[in-house]
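TICKET: design request
STATUS: open
ATTACHED STRUCTURE:
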């Protein structure tokens, strides 16, 4: 996996749902643990097609409990 987001520096990533630039603190591996509340989104991985989508929490809130790639595309 190579996402180019490793390292401690703050960075931003465009949300795949709304296109907003979202602040990310720390490496991609920390997104799931939500250790840093300045992180504004996280990456979802869909086993069905192996795709990954970075979404802000506003868009994540709009997804169903068991989101699929189609749900992200519909945002
Ligand atoms: Zn969004």
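STATUS: resolved
RESOLUTION: sequence designed for all positions
ATTACHED SEQUENCE:
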């Amino acid at each position: 996996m190579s996402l180019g987001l490793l390292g401690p520096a703050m960075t931003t990533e465009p949300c795949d749902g709304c296109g907003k630039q979202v602040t990310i603190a720390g490496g991609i591996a920390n997104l799931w643990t939500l250790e840093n509340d300045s992180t504004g989104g996280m990456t979802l991985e869909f086993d069905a097609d192996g795709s990954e989508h970075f979404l802000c929490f506003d868009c994540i809130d709009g997804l169903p409990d068991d989101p699929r790639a189609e749900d992200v595309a519909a945002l």
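CLOSING REMARK: The mean pLDDT is 79. The pocket of zinc ion is lined by residues 15, 17-18, 20, 55-56, 58-59 (CB under 6 Å).
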